[in-house]
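Suppose a colleague, Dr. K., hands you the sequence of a protein chain of 135 amino acids and asks what its three-dimensional shape might be. Before reaching for any lab equipment, you can write down a predicted structure in token form. Begin with the sequence itself:
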Amino acid sequence: MKVYLAIKNGSVIYHTDLTAMEQLDGIKKPDKTVTIQEWEAAGSTAHIDASGNIVLGEPADVVSRREEIVSLTREESTLLIELASKDYKVIKASEVGDVLSDVDPALHERRGYCRNRINEIRDRLAELAKGTSAA
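The predicted structure, expressed as tokens, is then:
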């Protein structure tokens, strides 16, 4: 089976039937033809590159953004787990009237780092969600 790709109104459209492509989209000849296996291997996506050619798969910036989101989300989860796993020490110190920074300065510093890093991650994830690329 073949997948027929064409550019229409600045987007890539696809069909598996040439007659349907002509009847539904008024396109008599596709700009690119690929096998169903190639199409599926590319995630059933295609885009138009800077030269105006159809390229299988998502644009590199979309892939990069998604990879960054996954990486940041994993890091955030790891930091949240770390904070939660040490909460009992904060509670224990508080219950006896101690201040964590006096009882365990290294833990106090590490928890501060974790909270700051989580805030940085959340800010970056918000930027990525808006589609910005500021680092």
